[in-house]
Amino acid sequence: MFTQIKFNLYYFLKYSYKTVLTFWLIFLGFLLFFLCITTLFQSFEIEFVGVNTLPSLIFTAIFAVLFFKETFPAIIKFGASRTSYLFAYVLYLILFTITMSIISNVYLFAMGYIIDFFHIDNFSYYGINIMDHQIATSQLILYESFLYMFFFLVFNIVAALLYKFGYKVSIVFLIIVSFPIFVRSFADELFHFFAQFIITEKEYSQFSFFILYIILIGILWLIVRNQSIIDKITNK
Amino acid sequence: MNIEVSKLKKVYGKKEALKDINLHLSGNKIIGLLGKNGAGKTTFMRILAGHFRQSKGDIQINEQPVFNNYEQTKDICFIMESNNFYEKFSVQEILTISSKFYPNWDESYANKLLDIFQLNAKQKIKTLSKGMYSALGIIIGLSSNAPITIFDEPYIGLDASNRSTFYDLLLQSYQQNPRLIILSTHLIDEVSKLFEEVIIFHEGSVMLHELSEELEKKHAIIKGRKEEIDQYIKNRHVIHESTILGQKTAVLFDEEKIDDERFEVSKLNLQELFVYLTKERMREIVHSN
């Protein structure tokens, strides 16, 4: 099993490092472009407010969908078992989360330094600290990591569902699952329940995230354990 | 290697792709897996490679199930006609990844094959032509040295010269490292001499499973006067017949020897035999309906 996990992880890293790197480089280019614009036009009233967490979470969601679709069949074709895929996946999930959080915070620190150094007043750049300035930085970094992990897992499950059941069944399933949001009494209950995952709420608990991850990984395992490598959307 | 298949069934929705397949494959040999489009060959090979589960029945390698069993699947290299590799990887990346996953990988041989097929290691998969893509599949399949190597139409887009190179390399690789090679193809004429055993799939069932030698012995073309031929073939297994200017030709199957001086006796090649056998089966189905 260890050998399989090692090879699977190798495949995951080979598959993903260029994509992750490209995203952050494009994002850096985008930030520097706006930084130049705001610096050049400081006399005009142009103000730029950048937030790095939102784009990186959107990237995580899209990347997670593609990740399952493109790695699962490839790895099974190489002979690895579905169990080893899941173990390697969990390790990769941790590595991915750490990488994203580190890069995101390096960006935040570097941009903050540049803004202070050049006294640029009309360019603000925030991370997840935009939510609440009272919370300790270490807690915010940890919370950001939790969000990356959550987004990656949820969108991976969506991708795995689409892969296994195709559009029709998956969409019906997702509608049924998301239906309570649209019923007032359920929605209130749900909001109360989700408060434990929101850092600014008093019900917030890091432990809840761990339980959530275990449940989500369990769901992914149920989908993947006997999964065919034929994609029900493309039938290939 | 010992592959045991019993009552194997695969159903896609309402369509039965495989119907109660029973097969026993053992030893090191090159097996030709033949059949018309939609006969169930690819489905069978994919179940054998652990890509998905059968609906019913059993498939075992060395008395162990295949699905989700790394001990068995690590020894299988299955090259399909398409969708083998992630398109954003380069040729070199695919070779490096393959070297990790296949325990018997031969790197120097892979590099040699890269030269033979003139592939650029730095080229991205998505920029490869169909022929080059097929060549990469062949390189992986041969260099894997997997105890069970399966090629499903591996030469789409390859020109005749490269196909011939592939047959030579396949034989060479088999001689150096004997193993079970299953080759599914529609270009039967080109490869028939490589096969030690032949399996013909027809509409989800195994229609025939014979040693090539036996297959050669088991049939005959007889040619002679129509009346004499008609009389001779009564109650025999005829898979094809034609008459031109009073001269009749019939292809008999399940006939060990024909000693009749009135007739000219000859043999079919595998491709012709395959065509007549599958056509005959179709006729039987049409008549029974």
Kindly describe this structure.
- The complex is a heterodimer of chains A (236) and B (289).
- Chain A is mainly alpha-helical and 236 residues long.
- Chain A has one domain (2-224).
- Chain A is 73% helix and 3% strand.
- Chain B has a six-stranded mixed sheet, with helices on both faces.
- Chain B is built from ten helices and 14 strands.
- Chain B has helices at 41-48, 70-73, 91-101, 107-116, 130-144, 160-176, 188-191, 212-217, 226-233, 270-288; strands at residues 2-12, 15-26, 30-35, 56-61, 64-65, 76-79, 148-152, 180-184, 197-202, 205-211, 219-225, 238-244, 247-253, 264-266.
- Helices cover 35% and strands 30% of the residues of chain B.
- In chain B, helix 4 packs antiparallel against helix 5.
- The chains are: A mainly alpha (236), B alpha/beta (289).
- The interface between A and B is medium-sized, with 26 and 28 residues.
Strand order of the main beta sheet of chain B, please?
6-7-8-3-9-10
Low-confidence stretches of chain B: none
- The overall strand count of chain B is 14
Task: Name the CATH superfamily classification of the largest domain in chain B.
Answer: P-loop containing nucleotide triphosphate hydrolases
Order of helices and strands of chain B: EEEHEEHEHHHEHEHEEHEHEEEH
What gap, in angstroms, lies between the N and C termini of chain A?
A: 28 Å
Structural class of chain A: mainly alpha
CATH class of the largest domain in chain B: Alpha Beta
Binned strand content of chain A? under 5%
Silhouette of chain B: globular
Largest sheet of chain B, if any?
6 strands, mixed
N→C terminal distance of chain B: 41 Å
* Oligomer type: heterodimer
> Treating each run of at least 4 consecutive H or I residues as one helix, how many helices of chain B?
10
Q: Enumerate the strands of the largest sheet of chain A in spatial order, edge to edge or round the barrel.
A: 1-2
